[in-house]
Amino acid sequence: MSVDGSAHAPRRMPTMRDVAEQASVSPMTVSRVLHEDPRVSSTTRDRVLAAVDALGYRRNEVARNLRLGSKSGLIGLVVTNLANPFYSQFALGVEAIAGANGLRVVLTNTDEDPERERVLVEELSARRIDGMIVVPSGADHSHLDPLAPGGVPVVLGARPPSGLPLDCVLVDDFGGARSATAALLAGGHTRVGFLGLPPSVWTSSERFRGFCVALEEAGVRLESRYVRVSQRTIPAAEEAARALLSLRRPPTALFCANSRNTLGAFRAMSQVAPSTALAGFDDFELADVLGVPLIVAAYDPRELGRTAMELLLRRMSDEDPPLEPRRIVVPATVVHYGG
Amino acid sequence: MSVDGSAHAPRRMPTMRDVAEQASVSPMTVSRVLHEDPRVSSTTRDRVLAAVDALGYRRNEVARNLRLGSKSGLIGLVVTNLANPFYSQFALGVEAIAGANGLRVVLTNTDEDPERERVLVEELSARRIDGMIVVPSGADHSHLDPLAPGGVPVVLGARPPSGLPLDCVLVDDFGGARSATAALLAGGHTRVGFLGLPPSVWTSSERFRGFCVALEEAGVRLESRYVRVSQRTIPAAEEAARALLSLRRPPTALFCANSRNTLGAFRAMSQVAPSTALAGFDDFELADVLGVPLIVAAYDPRELGRTAMELLLRRMSDEDPPLEPRRIVVPATVVHYGG
DNA sequence: TTGTACGCGTTATCAA
DNA sequence: TTGATAACGCGTACAA
């Protein structure tokens, strides 16, 4: 019955040659029809289009791009943890701008593993993606060098480059932490705790710096026993907060360097010391319904993604006079949620 | 100075031919070295590897796949809204299994626009992706037919196929809604409201069906004035809930078909009628700290993604005896959060 | 108006 | 052990 001899489904995608045969013309003519070249008689065009339709032919973009010189129309996005709403919003921002420019996004997740990141970056560049946006998980960025032979345009997200002249988009971690801490100190606190991640995480160390400066400016002493910086999960943060609040002279206010720490702290204090004042970096859904006063340093992760993609577009197009690397800082604003 | 004449950076990625020239061998030999073909003398191999290193050569996967027969190593993921944590978790599950099988994921977002979905699907298949996982936004799935000429293996996520024999993974929307509603009714309520999306959204209509059956089983009458099904955002849901709770004889319990409606309802009731009982589909972060008793139908979106990818792998490999389409339903469990 | 020849970067096959 | 040739699907220059 069927022309193929195959009973139910085509095993192979039709090619231009298949279309050409079906329409009894040369592949060249098919190509012309698909490019809407006017120098084709309308009868042959109709025959070709009929064949295209009958076979369900679609141009092979891969072969096309190979011929045209390796523009894949794909950009790579390497994030550390897509489960974090921050990064999914970030990805969405990237995708929006990329899509508007005819580019698709290949998404990959590193789980904060530098080795995995290195492998993924290699692989993406072997696929001849046109550019990459990377949230680097380690301090060594040598595998990202766009000037290295075979290098690819790169923009870093959320963390600055180390030792390489790369574009990047950052949150104002320092300023946001400083302002939020200042707002917290406006309550007149003199014993303030800090919950965060190890200083090896760049954002966290910046936030700690902002915290310290705000204390200094308010003339409040920093007590190292009030500082805990190794909580990566909500339960760990709750544990650490509970420890602080159980000291003989506990802090009366807490600043948390990210939302997981803020949430852990909230859980601990609502049980142990409900009147503790709370502030943190990162806004989160439901911050307003916790039922306690809360100050957060908020920013727009989607905006961050959009900006990163815009930087990448600029970097991808304009190549020859190597552009000065740009560092764009997205502001963080202080938001007060009422109790 | 430099061999190219170019001053600062390579304009073009080195190819096998470049390496071959640099090492004074044929491209074929380079290929063999890269494939660790043993039939190469160690001296030539060293020369080739040195050239590879010097030039920073990386194999062009695109050309390679073209030669090998259009396996791109890429799968497409088409979701409706990545900003929804459900879909980012889903994507993460897909990505995990894909990555473990050497596949990368091209991520695209439709914003629930069927036309955009159609265009994206076309484009992905023109890129010769090896398969697709799609969360369809419309009822017409004709553009997804894998049996159509040029069709691609497809698995649907979260919504069932209409009129096509496609694999899909679903949440037990009906059962979850029924169980959660039953748990709600255990409180002895006789006036129960429903907040959700229009029945055109499949998941929502299933959840409504579960809700209705639970009412029936408990001998509770369904009152249509207690049903509101057009809230897509938290504020809209809050508004609708407020309207219900302001009726002369308001419902004493509310069932919400998704987390946005649950959150809106929570906001409304905490102001208007704090003693209203609340249940909803979808778990969410912080459900336990709202300070009111809450029943949710919970499931694991990441598991859903993993399962979808596993179905796709199976579909992609085993081609010839067209497999029976499979429908896998992931269970939803009822969780009680205390007040 | 249509077709031929070649190239994009890689690899399978066969010959040397 | 190595190389020449052809081919994957498509596009461009040129010829017919």
UniProtKB/TrEMBL annotation, chains A, B:
InterPro entries per UniProt: HTH_LacI, Lambda_DNA-bd_dom_sf, Peripla_BP/Lac1_sug-bd_dom, Peripla_BP_I
Gene Ontology MF: a single term: DNA binding
Cited CDD domains: HTH_LacI, PBP1_LacI_sugar_binding-like
Pfam families assigned: LacI (PF00356), Peripla_BP_1 (PF00532)
Matching SUPFAM superfamilies: lambda repressor-like DNA-binding domains, Periplasmic binding protein-like I
Region annotation (Disordered) ranges: 1-28
Record keywords, A-Z: DNA-binding, Transcription, Transcription regulation
Lineage: Bacteria, Bacillati, Actinomycetota, Actinomycetes, Propionibacteriales
Top-level taxon in the UniProt lineage: Bacteria
Protein name: LacI family DNA-binding transcriptional regulator
Gene3D superfamilies: 3.40.50.2300, lambda repressor-like DNA-binding domains
Domain (HTH lacI-type) ranges: 14-68
PANTHER family xrefs: HTH-TYPE TRANSCRIPTIONAL REGULATOR GALS (PTHR30146:SF109), LACI-RELATED TRANSCRIPTIONAL REPRESSOR (PTHR30146)
